[in-house]
Amino acid sequence: MKRNMQKAEFFIGIVILLGGLFTYGLGVHQLLPVPRPDLVVYGTTLIGVLFILMGSDIFSKPTKEMQILENDERNIAITNASLAYAYKVSTTLFVIVLFALIFMGYVSKVVCFSMIGVIAIGQITWIITAHCLEKRM
Predict the structure, then answer these.
(1) pTM of this prediction?
(2) Nearest-CA neighbor of 41 among 14, 15, 19?
(3) Is the pLDDT at 29 greater than 70, yes or no?
């Protein structure tokens, strides 16, 4: 499961990076209906590189000890608990930053509702996943 996610991240990163570079190379970025078309190239390059870095662990060969630790129930429980805590912290910080940006007037309506939608989708996913896992376990 973890390897498939890393492969998907790596592939998506390659596609986004190459898409941004082709956009720049072909000069299409100047035709995009965005306020700053020059930032499209920088944005896609940055996002592509970040996805590639997140998925680059697929190239490492796991040792026998790493595979044992990965399948250890205690380590799985610790990882799940830390991921849940990190999710709650990042969601809370995201909401605080969104409120501060709205309060200071830096966020437009589209950006505001997009971010609120992301928060809502994350919370709904959390609830549905917990419900499905309760039924299965």
Answers:
(1) 0.59
(2) 19
(3) no
